[in-house]
UniProtKB/TrEMBL annotation:
GO molecular function (one): catalytic activity
Protein name per UniProt: Fumarylacetoacetase
Keyword Metal-binding: yes
Coiled coil: none
Length: 312
């Protein structure tokens, strides 16, 4: 069974049901904690009653600086929403690790961003160095991936589309809520990854709901493709894509064909004029709730509750 670990200003904790036991470790970073798994196991086996989880302040369990890499359009339902047809080439992009925030911290929308979107994603936390040129088979995943985290790849769509700029549009501070738990996996847990269900709602209204079975490029293949050019180290984070249900969707085909005939400035002006009528984009005061878990509770990454607020 996986072991859920929580990070607070006071250190690291193993979560058991509604209570948490302090991990006796000097680890500050996620990589240091992963190197001290014996301390985690001792806390998990402890007879202490522990502290109520509700009394603890959760920090992101992935410490920064670290590499934050993400996969683009990696669920069939998202590809359909985005207007893609046929084979989709595997694509990666980077996010600034300064975008990583806590699981209950507010998402702060910059003043110039008018179309703020959400993307619930499963994050893989590396437990060993993945050198360039590595080929990862399914049975190799436990060698490289230490655990999983719940993330939200928050996106400024007006920046992303008009500038074709993923790095900026997804890297503002608070644009990668992470946690609450780092689920450290045992080798037998990896057989259950496709049973993980990603759910996200806004103000209690469901928006996204799919299992990993909807994923196009699965973790072992993704790590192999990424290792063609990118080294990853313990504590680095790979976001593995989001299912359908985001606010952004491709325009109808006739509108898309007309837009292709317009100069870029006019095309985007017309597109965002239409998007302004879309009520699904995030607004000041919204509350996003997200979870990732298997139905049997074998792996449960906890719940994020992140309010949205405008920048002061």
């Amino acid at each position: 069974m996986s072991t859920n670990v929580l990070r607070t200003p006071d250190g690291w904790w193993v979560v058991r049901d509604e209570r948490a036991v302090r991990v006796d470790t000097k680890a500050i970073t996620t990589a240091e904690l992963l190197a001290d798994r014996d301390a985690v196991r001792e806390a998990a086996a402890s007879a202490e009653s522990g502290t109520p989880v509700i009394d603890l302040v959760a920090l992101p369990p992935v410490t920064t600086p670290c590499r934050v890499v993400a996969q683009m359009v990696n669920y069939r339902s998202h590809a359909k929403d985005s207007g893609f047809t046929g084979d989709i080439p595997p694509t990666f992009f980077r996010k600034a690790s300064g975008s990583v925030s806590g699981p209950h911290d507010a998402i702060i929308c910059p003043a110039h961003v008018k179309f703020l979107d959400y993307e619930v994603e499963l994050g893989l936390v590396m437990g060993a160095t993945l050198p360039v040129g590595t080929v990862v088979e399914e049975q190799d995943l436990p060698r490289y991936v230490a655990g999983l985290v719940l993330t939200n790849d928050v996106s400024a769509r007006d920046v992303q589309l008009t500038k074709t700029q993923f790095y900026e549009s997804k890297s503002y501070p608070t644009f990668t809520p992470t946690g609450p738990y780092l689920a450290l996996l045992e080798p037998e847990d990896f057989a259950h990854l496709l049973n993980l269900r990603l759910r996200l709602s806004v103000n209690g209204v469901p928006r996204q709901d799919r299992t990993l079975a909807d994923m196009i490029v699965r973790p072992a293949q993704a790590l192999t493709l990424l290792a063609r050019f990118q080294t990853l180290d313990p504590g680095d984070l790979l976001l593995t894509g989001t299912p359908g249900g985001t606010a952004l969707k491709a325009p109808p085909k006739p509108a898309e064909k007309i837009g292709a005939l317009l100069p870029p400035a006019l095309k985007w002006k017309a597109f965002f004029k239409g998007q302004a009528k879309n009520p699904r984009y995030l607004r000041n005061g919204d509350l996003i709730t997200a979870t990732i878990a298997t139905s049997d509770g074998r792996i449960d990454l906890g719940e994020q509750r992140t309010p949205v607020t405008d920048a002061p």
